[in-house]
Specification:
Radius of gyration of chain A: 20 Å
Largest sheet of chain B: 5 strands, mixed
Helix content of chain B: 40-55%
Oligomer: heterodimer
Number of strands of chain B: 11
Largest interface: A-B, 31 and 20 residues
Order of helices and strands of chain A: HHHHHHHHHHHHHHHH
Strand content of chain B: 15-25%
Largest sheet of chain A: none
Distance between the termini of chain A: 23 Å
Chain lengths: ~240, ~350
């Protein structure tokens, strides 16, 4: 999956008429399309065989053109929404597919899609809320609450930066991540070795690191959250 | 306070938890209007109490409690539960604590203070302190060997409720021991008094012993005024007003019947319950001997009962009811007659012995 800043660059290129950039986006995001569409249809799909995927891709293309950049709605979220709405549109025309409540809502608001920007606000807000609730549930399985996070969140910018970095590393490390999921505990020692952060710091910010790592790891599920955070790398690049 | 911006991730009663773009999870004051999860808001951060914030407080409270308990105990054990007054020529008063040690000392006149400056009494067992004081008095020429004198000692409870106070016999013996060492011939009178008497004595500016003498003298119709007692020593007053302290100070017995009890074997215990006093009846032989040495006679038996009497008198004085000499005379005339007959004999006998 493309890192965000890359995506943004490509997006602006594609919108200003760069076909190569557009291609790159479509290709790069095809797994994303697969995931969204599969989830919606609740069955396994294959490129080339299933029409649904083509529909999804077309919708993605449309999203590139229609996207109005606002902080509140990351491109991927917008794209996802659009893919969903186009797809339900299509599926309704196929008689034998039962619509779930969620999709009914999306279908009903098809008309509003074209016109109102407010619709996007509502939708985005709803999706954000859903996302956060899911995140809360996930944290619950690790025995972490938002209140606890508020208590152990590092106050100093430096410590925060360090821990955010460590969380990123953890999220990228498949073995440690699976350990985290299995044991529901942070592998402090290994992470300290890997990142060079002191064990004490990691211990103190234990819950914080886990929470942030989860956001990063499930970046597509937690689109809004992940997008909202200013990751240290991104900040560095912006300064450059 | 500076406000911060973030996505609302949890809504509580008065606060929300937000996630800032910098990656901070913070708790902020809940905005007045309706907030939804996922909304971006700007608000002032709220101070978060760390988990189990009360633990350090609890620890501190325990320490304080312990310290104050220790302090109070210290004060309690150092508290004077009884006062031993010594009137030689100088008048002093020692405060005694529960461990029979001297914890306070007051000089009730200029000489008394001088004496206390010369003799260390604080922290010493009361009998030692008394001995040392008498010895000091001799050294300072307040008492002169070969000269007749009278030493009046009192033992008073600090408060009415206190039961265990030093035995006046102990005080008596300590004084006598010191006197013997220096070969001073002086009479010693030891009396036990209730707290009110001491209180009134202080108000009058007298030592407990002198005030007691004043009270009892008035009871017997031989008034000695407070001013006289203030200015002169007891010895001087004895000569001037022709009385024997022993006689005057002995309380009037209330009843004919006396309690019959055997004295405890061996030395009397250092501390005794104020209510019980050994009464020696068949000691007339010893009495006479002791009288020669100026010892107080064992009629203190009656004193035990008459504690109540004194207290009542003292209470009445407190209440300002009575005018002293005449009332006493009238009230006690009958009492005086009866036992006086018995006592009269003894009195005469004593006068002869010491005369």
């Amino acid at each position: 999956m493309l890192p965000f800043t890359e995506l943004e660059k490509e997006l602006s290129k594609a919108r200003t008429g760069d076909p190569a950039a557009r291609e790159r986006i479509l290709e790069g995001l095809s797994p994303f399309v697969l995931q969204v569409v599969s989830r919606l249809c609740q069955k396994r799909l294959e490129w080339g065989r299933d029409d649904e995927l083509s529909i999804g891709l077309i919708a993605l293309n449309e999203a590139i053109d229609r996207y109005r950049e606002e902080r509140q709605v990351p491109f991927l979220a917008y794209a996802r929404l659009l893919i969903k709405s186009r797809l339900t549109d299509y599926l309704r025309r196929q008689v034998h597919w039962p619509l779930s409540l969620d999709n009914q809502e999306v279908a009903a608001s098809l008309e509003a899609v074209r016109a109102q920007e407010e619709y996007w606000h509502h939708e985005a807000a709803r999706e954000r809320e859903e996302e956060i609730k899911e995140f809360n549930a996930l944290l619950g399985t690790f025995g972490i609450s938002f209140t606890e996070l508020a208590q152990c969140s590092p106050k100093h910018a430096d410590t925060r930066r360090v821990l955010l970095g460590a969380a990123r590393v953890l999220a990228g490390h498949s073995e440690l991540i699976s350990r985290l999921f299995r044991a529901k505990k942070l592998p402090v020692r290994e992470l300290a070795e890997l990142t060079g952060v002191s064990r004490k710091t990691l211990e103190r910010g234990r819950k914080y690191v886990i929470a942030v790592a989860l956001i990063w790891y499930h970046c597509e599920e937690f689109l809004y959250l992940c997008n909202y955070l200013r990751w240290p790398e991104a900040e560095k690049r912006e300064k450059q | 306070m500076k406000q911060i911006t973030g996505l609302v991730i949890e809504i509580k009663k008065k606060t929300c938890i937000i996630l800032t773009p910098q990656g901070e999870f913070r708790e902020v004051a809940r905005p007045v209007k309706n907030v939804r999860i996922g909304e971006e808001i700007t608000s002032a951060p709220v101070k978060i109490l760390p988990a189990a914030w009360w633990k350090p407080l609890l620890a501190a409270a325990c320490v304080c409690l312990f310290l104050s308990a220790s302090f109070l105990y210290y004060r309690w054990s150092k508290e004077a539960i009884a006062y031993v007054g010594l009137d030689i020529n100088p008048s002093v008063e020692l405060g005694v604590n529960r461990r029979q040690l001297v914890c306070e000392s007051n000089g009730l006149d200029a000489d008394g203070e001088k004496l206390l400056q010369q003799v260390t009494v604080r922290g010493r067992p009361v009998n030692e302190a008394v001995e040392a004081l008498v010895a000091g008095a001799v050294t300072a020429r307040f008492l002169k060997p070969g000269e007749a004198g009278i030493i009046l000692t009192t033992v008073t409870a600090a408060k009415e409720e206190i039961r265990e106070i030093p035995d006046k016999q102990l005080v008596l013996q300590s004084v006598e021991k010191a006197l013997r060492t220096f070969g001073v011939q002086a009479e010693v009178v030891a009396e036990q008094t209730p707290p009110q008497v001491r209180r009134q004595a202080r108000e009058a500016g007298l030592s407990t012993g002198k005030y007691l003498l004043h009270l009892r003298a008035a009871q017997k119709g031989r008034p000695v005024s407070i001013e006289e007692l203030r200015e002169k020593t007891i010895t001087e007053l004895e000569i001037k007003k022709h009385f024997k302290t022993e006689d005057l100070i002995r309380p009037l017995p209330e009843r004919q019947q006396e309690k019959k009890k055997e004295p405890p074997a061996g030395k009397p215990p250092a501390f005794k319950s104020g209510a019980e006093l050994p009464e020696r009846q068949g000691d007339s032989g010893e009495e006479k001997e002791e009288k020669k040495n100026g010892l107080f006679t064992p009629d203190d038996a009656k004193q035990g009962k008459l504690q109540g009497d004194d207290q009542e008198e003292a209470k009445k004085i407190d209440a300002g009811e009575k005018k002293k000499p005449p009332a006493f005379l009238k009230g006690n005339q009958e009492k005086e007659k009866g036992p006086e007959k018995k006592e009269g004999g003894k009195e005469r006998g004593k006068k002869q012995a010491s005369g």
